[in-house]
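Protein folding task:
====================
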Amino acid sequence: MEPFERLVERHGDLVWRVCRAVLDPVHADDAWSETFLAALRAYESLPAGSDTKAWLVVIAHRKALDIHRARARLPTPTELLPDRPGVHDTRSVVAIDDQVARHELLMTALARLPLGQRQAVVYHHLVGLPHREVADLVGISHDAARRAASDGMAALRRLVVDSGTGAAPPRRRPPPPRSTRHDAPQGRS
C-alpha cells in the first residue's frame, strides 16, 4: 500500500470538490477533514487493489451528507446580519478576478439545484465518475442518475444565463440545418 500522505496529495482536491458540491466552503473544509480522518482509520483494513479514488469519494459523500443533515437541524438566526455577503449575492463578486467570479457564480447556481441534481452534476461532470458509479453512490438507478445530471446541467445553464452574465456553461453544438428541395437553387428561368 502506498503511504497515506500520497493518497491525500493525489485525491485531496477531488475530495474537496465532492464535499463542496453539497456544502458551503467552511463546512466543506470540515467534511474534507472528517473524510481523511475516517479514511486514515480504515486505510489499513482496505483490501489490496481497491479503487482508493472511489473509496474516498464514497466516504466524502457520506461525510458531506452527515454535515448537511446536521446543519438542517440547527436553528437559523434571522435578525443577525452575516459578516460577509452570502453565497447567493453575485453582485459582491464583480470586483474580484473574473475567474473567481465565474467560480462563485457556478457555485451559487450549484447550491440552488436540488440535492440529487447537484450530486449527479458534480460526481459526473466535475469528478468524472460514469453514470453507473454516480447511481451506486447516490442510491438511484442508472437512468435516474443520467437524467439528474442532464436536468441539472440544463438548470445550471438557465441559472447562469438568468444571473445576467450571459455566459452559460458550454452546450453541445446543434446539428446543422438540413437543406430541403425548396432551399435548393432553382434552374434557369
Remarks:
- Helices lie at 4-22, 25-43, 52-72, 98-112, 115-126, 131-138, 142-162.
- Confidence is low (pLDDT under 50) at residues 88-96.
- Residues 52-72 form the longest helix (21 residues).
- The CA atoms of residues 15 and 93 lie 25 Å apart.
